[in-house]
């Protein structure tokens, strides 16, 4: 293991923030990870685990050790008549895993095509898009407990998945490093095309009974038309989460703002589109110095070049305050602010 000092993290976060890590190490195997946790007393250290760095905002230099997960490998671990269980290591690129499933004609993750980042981070916030979340195909994961170096298994229910939530952002925060995830994929997929935008693309292509590959291609084209490519314009996807509020509060807002966008959530509350709130507060397309809210998607904050993390954080706080002032609701970050 080669521990490097004073390393720029610019290439390791999709905002492209040029913060430095005091120490930086790349972990390639589970064995290395276990030895590393035990030998370096990681529980006493300030550590930051990174996959693809597509959901972090580095507000300054990191005065600790960055652990870049590079564990690779994907394999089928079991199957029955209807399902296949596939294990993917934490450092695999998420979209490569999706393509691996699609090539085999397996269903369940096609709607999650092209989400940036690595497999190991996917359970952290129960990644979701176009009507699907990983909790729908997640079987279990293995993680190293940082304090002991022991391997621990988490089932689907152990993870306490919610909308952009899991146990790893709550009571288990900072206690485990995820090493691999097992997914349960369908051998006879029934595609979820409930999302209007997917239906529209399929209709345009005159596809009535889509394959997983056709749904994946539709999702890819929607994403490419809506979201800025981080390789071109630094960003971390949606900066804030959508907001759940009681129906009575939503109806009251609807009186003053008849075009407000909201959908019934499984909890019985209404999920309000934070992008709409931010746009209505006047931020969509606004540029402040090196940063701004994207012109096509107000929820996505971008680095136009040379921004510091604290500039982006200041913009986020200004947006949050103006949404609070205009609508009386608090939008909270989805991105992990370091
Ligand atoms: P990182 O940013 O490296 O890490 C995220 C968090 O997880 C950090 O707290 C980190 O410490 C922790 N972590 C990472 N790996 C591990 C590990 N192995 N063990 C323990 N902790 C770990 N998200 C969605 O849900 N849906 C979307 O549609 C979506 N679209 C996006 C579009 C764009 C253009 C971008 C830039 C981002 C988008 N995201 C989306 C957010 C992001 O892609 C996901 O959250 C992704 O899972 C992050 O993966 P990562 O490897 O980059 O994580
Ligand atoms: N909207 C606006 N103005 C904007 C942006 C959006 O009015 O500037 C309105 C749209 O008109 C639409 C609604 O808000 O009616 C929802 O917009 P969109 O379909 O773009 O989805 P979103 O809620 O903004 C969420 C996820 C995305 C995910 C998409 C597709 C969150 C925080 N974001 O975005 O995830 O890809 O749905 O399912 O839940 C991410 O998490 O990083 C991410 C990109």
Structural commentary:
The protein is an alpha+beta fold. It has three domains: 66 residues, Uridine Diphospho-n-acetylenolpyruvylglucosamine Reductase, domain 2; 113 residues, Uridine Diphospho-n-acetylenolpyruvylglucosamine Reductase, domain 3, CATH 3.30.465.10; 104 residues, UDP-N-acetylenolpyruvoylglucosamine reductase, C-terminal domain (Uridine Diphospho-n-acetylenolpyruvylglucosamine Reductase, domain 1, Alpha-Beta Complex). Helix content is 24%, strand content 28%. The protein has seven helices and 20 strands. A five-stranded antiparallel β-sheet has the order 6-7-12-10-11. A four-stranded mixed β-sheet has the order 1-2-5-3. A hairpin with a 6-residue loop joins strand 18 and strand 19. Helix 3 packs across helix 4. The longest helix is centred in the last third of the chain and has 19 residues. The chain is globular. The relative contact order is 0.13. Bound molecules: flavin-adenine dinucleotide (FAD) and uridine-diphosphate-2(N-acetylglucosaminyl) butyric acid. Uridine-diphosphate-2(N-acetylglucosaminyl) butyric acid binds next to strand 13 and helix 6.
């Amino acid at each position: 293991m080669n521990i490097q000092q004073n390393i720029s993290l610019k290439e390791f976060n999709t905002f492209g923030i040029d913060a430095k890590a005091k120490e930086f190490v790349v972990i390639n195997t589970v064995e290395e990870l276990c030895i590393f946790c035990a030998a370096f007393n990681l529980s006493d250290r300030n550590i930051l685990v990174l996959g693809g760095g597509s959901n972090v905002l580095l507000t300054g230099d990191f005065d600790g050790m960055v652990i870049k997960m590079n564990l690779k490998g994907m394999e089928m671990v079991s199957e029955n008549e209807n399902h296949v269980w596939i294990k993917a290591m934490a450092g695999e690129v998420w979209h490569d895993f999706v393509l691996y499933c699609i090539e085999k004609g397996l269903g369940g993750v096609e709607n999650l095509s092209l989400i940036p980042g690595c497999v190991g981070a996917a359970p952290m916030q129960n990644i979701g898009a176009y009507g699907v979340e990983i909790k729908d195909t997640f079987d279990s994961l293995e993680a190293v407990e940082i304090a002991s170096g022991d391997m621990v298994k988490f089932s689907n229910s152990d993870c306490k998945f919610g909308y952009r939530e899991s146990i790893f952002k709550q009571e288990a925060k900072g206690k485990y490093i995820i090493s691999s995830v097992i997914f349960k994929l369908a051998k006879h997929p029934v595609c979820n095309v409930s999302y209007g935008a997917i239906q529209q693309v399929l209709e345009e292509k005159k596809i009535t009974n889509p394959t997983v590959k056709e749904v994946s291609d539709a999702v890819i084209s929607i994403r490419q038309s809506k979201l800025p490519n981080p390789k071109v314009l630094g960003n971390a996807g949606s900066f804030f989460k959508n907001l759940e509020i009681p129906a009575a509060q939503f109806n009251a807002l609807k009186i003053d703002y008849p075009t407000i966008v909201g959908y019934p959530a499984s909890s019985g509350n209404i999920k309000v589109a934070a992008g709409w709130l931010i746009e209505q507060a006047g931020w969509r397309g606004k540029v402040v110095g090196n940063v701004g809210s994207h012109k096509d998607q107000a929820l996505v904050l971008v680095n136009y070049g040379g921004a510091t993390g604290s500039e982006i954080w200041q913009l986020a706080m200004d947006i949050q305050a103006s949404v609070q002032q205009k609508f009386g609701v608090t939008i909270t970050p989805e991105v992990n602010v370091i």
